[in-house]
Hints:
Blueprint: H1 12-18, H2 21-24, H3 28-44, H4 50-68, H5 81-93, H6 95-98, H7 106-142, E1 147-152, E2 155-161, H8 162-187, E3 189-190, H9 206-213, E4 217-218, H10 222-227, H11 230-257, E5 264-265, H12 284-307, H13 322-345, E6 347-348, H14 350-357, H15 364-373, H16 378-395, H17 421-426, H18 436-448
Parallel strand pairs: 3-4
Antiparallel strand pairs: 1-2, 5-6
Amino acid sequence: MWKGRFAVETAELVQQFGESISYDWRLYKQDVAGSIAHAHAQREAGLLTSEEFDQIENGLRQIEADIDGGKFEFKTSLEDIHMNIEAELTRRIGPAGAKLHTARSRNDQVATDTRLYCRAEVDAISVGIRSLQSALLDRAEKYAATVLPAYTHLQRGQPVTVGHHLLAYVEMLDRDLGRLADCRKRLNVSPLGSGALAGSTINLDRQAIADELGFDRISTNSMDAVSDRDYIVEFLFAMSLCGVHLSRLSEDLILWCSAEFGFVTLSDAHTTGSSLMPQKKNPDVCEITRGKTGRLLGNLVSLLTAVKGLPLTYNRDLQEDKEPLFDSIDTLKLTLAVNAEMIAAMEVREENCSRAASDPMLLATDLADWLVKQGVPFRNAHELVGKAVAESVKTGTPLNQLDLSAIDPAYTSEAGSVFDLGRALAARTNPGAPSVENVRSEIRRWRESGL
Length: 451
């Protein structure tokens, strides 16, 4: 492609070092779509005859079909997907194929292809997130009233329900969907027509090309258009944070599956055994999910590092955007799918949850609230309950069986009424609180939203 300037063939090691066809081949559908739109604009500008346009479009469609069918031979010597397709097109249809690259560069071409690719994958990942949300919502509905302890510092804190706990992850995933939607708006901009960095003296209808490819608008600075990879960084970040949320869910389930917690059982189909210990049932999906989150984070840092010191405009370093992008997309899509399937089959061991939630210490804060309602300032109430807790620990007497009036006269005979778990949960009626009524209301709201 640059034989007019160079007298010596590119060294084989340089070809091997610089090629990207081994991974950017997956942009072929976007490359074909972008080339057809570009050729359409060339025809409208009088650069191609209708016959030449038909030859180009038919030739590109045939190449796309050959790649679909695994019949296309990619050549490392042609470096990337763009030149592989263009060279084969020219071989097949002759001079018309050599006209296709008029008024464009691989710089704006690859930016167009990756934006189209990211747009499609944002949509696909969003579907995967919705599927996982749906699975969580189904489990939340089934166990909306199943009480279990919630934790801070991995110490028992206050009672909630399994439904409320799972809905927290539905919320997290919904924020992930919002970030992806925002990312989609910013990436859905057409750079085609920006050329290598300064456009072209042959002016094609950029807006018509953008409309044909489904872009919302065209880029307004040619230098930024060919060097911008913000949209990939942002996409990688959105995927990374989604991975972090999945990792947190995984950590909860790993704990809940242990004999020490015993709150849930995962199906045999989503767990594995041990090669040595026959009794083991390991939550491998959760552990691998937790591990793959590091991979998603690493891909984000990799690209941030690659672009942090680049001068305008295009630099070959930007070739390093695709492998992290493709890997994160593949990783997150599979992770979402397997987690949705696992959650859908998960069963909660309600008797164990109930046993853990029966710990009267979970209602210590409710006892302080009761004192406040009797007119005791909260800090004083906090101290009085702290004294009761200390006495409970010291004597081994459950908190709800102590003679509280012996600790302080502020405790009347009515104080014991606090230790009714059903009443305690039902009293948590503020928006966002875990009363069963609230949980069921939230489930209805999510259902009405389309989950």
